[in-house]
Amino acid sequence: MIEIIDVKKSFKEKDVLNGISGTFDAGKCNLIIGSSGTGKSVLLKCIVGLIKPDSGQILFDNRDFTSGDKESQTEIRREIGMLFQGSALFDSKNVEQNIMFPLDVLTNMSKEEKIERVNFCLDRVGLANVNDKMPSEISGGMKKRVGIARAIVNKPNYLFCDEPNSGLDPQTSMVIDELINEITKEYGITTVVVTHDMNSVIEIGEKVMYLYKGHKLWEGSNEDITNSGVKELDDFVFANRMMKKFR
Amino acid sequence: MKSLGKFLIFTGQMFVRRESFKTYLSLVLDECIKVGFNSLFIVTIVSVFMGAVVTVQTAYNLVSPFIPDYVISLVVRDMTVLELSPTIIAIVYAGKVGSNIAGELGTMRITEQIDALEVMGINSTSYLVLPKIIASLLMYPMLVIMSGFLCIYGGYLTSLATGIISGHDYIYGIRYEFIEFNIAFALIKAFVFALLVASISAYKGYFTTGGALEVGKSSTAAVTNSCIAILLADYLLAQLLLA
Ligand SMILES: Nc1ncnc2c1ncn2[C@@H]1O[C@H](COP(=O)(O)OP(=O)(O)O)[C@@H](O)[C@H]1O
Ligand SMILES: [Mg+2]
Questions:
Q1: Where a domain ends, among A155, A176, A202?
Q2: pTM for the whole structure
Q3: Looking at residue A247, what is its pLDDT?
Q4: Which partner for B190 in A82, A228, B100, B144 could form a disulfide, CB atoms 3.0-4.6 Å apart?
Q5: Contacts of residue A134 in chain B, CB cutoff 8 Å?
């Protein structure tokens, strides 16, 4: 479980996060939703420590991440897997080397063990025979899968995904969402997914946090999202025509 | 002033939380190939032509019958060792290697590859930048030594081909009143320039923000800033060590 308490962040004069609190449960896909530019990515980067929040606390299973020393921060970081918006695969390495990378630098596994683990993860994300391909040679959907494989290769306790289905067609998006959900359940990982895609909310939104201009306006499950009573959220949920019909 | 401070912090960060020695060894070797081996072609071309041109032009300027022919190759030698090989090649090196380093790191920054390293708990500055700087320090002095030979040899070939001076006089000239310290001076310059180009370019690339356009800007800034730094350092070193 990850707990965030009153996280604030501003860039220069601009307040991006105005005191966000909440919890993300283990074994669940926890969604952070909101329209573009509301600070979702900034919140995610604060949680994983890429951006230092101005104030507030972030607890990974009751271990303080924000005020801990370098050593304990690194320890927590090594339990984190992250899928980036653009997949962030290393251009100079092929698929196999990309996925193996965390094992190379963080573990003392033998070459055979590493290859076995890489192939297991590739298989888990539904890819085969791409080990020698370079990132520039595979499609966007495959990159996301490789990104997921790299994120889970070192058996993380926490998985973070920033817009896992941006730039993908609706069908592939759904497959990726389901993959993330399954992996979360299977290994009891605490997963946090940032998205602005209502399809994801409907598919895997067991626990949803709604951000609006740096404020948390609502929290709940996808079953209750249509009767939240929050006007901004209703506007977000019923943005497209098909959803308007349901309303 | 603020960016100088940021630059110093940046270089300081490289030496904390390091990965295993083996990881670094393979990274440094990779970089040596990129920085050194891949520059061989351009350095060879530039050096040989530089030697040829300097020989022809020096001969053109020294027409007095009172000046013996071997002075031409003596001048070529001293110019090559003191200035042409370390400094001019450094400018070429900044154009090739500096823009490459800044472009690579800038792209890694904007595509979040640097963030990916940080999330894994890896110190991205020491992982990405330190190997480049070490490789530059190892390879650039070697390029300068090679360039020196090729430049003087280029002059030799020209004198043979055109008959400006005889091969015998040329060899006599390059051995006449040879000052060993000049070689040490050239190598000191080489180390300083190698450090400047690699660290300035890495700094420019590492702190890129934005998109592809900004990566291009970082590359350009890396080359211009490196060139300015090279010329400033060139002047300072000459004042310090030769004056
Ligand atoms: N490094 C930064 N410096 C300044 N402003 C930033 C930075 N990162 C994000 N912002 C600003 O914070 C706001 C929220 O951005 P972000 O979290 O990326 O939005 P999104 O919810 O679409 O992911 C944006 O207005 C953006 O301009
Ligand atoms: Mg975002």
A1: A155
A2: 0.91
A3: 64
A4: B144
A5: none
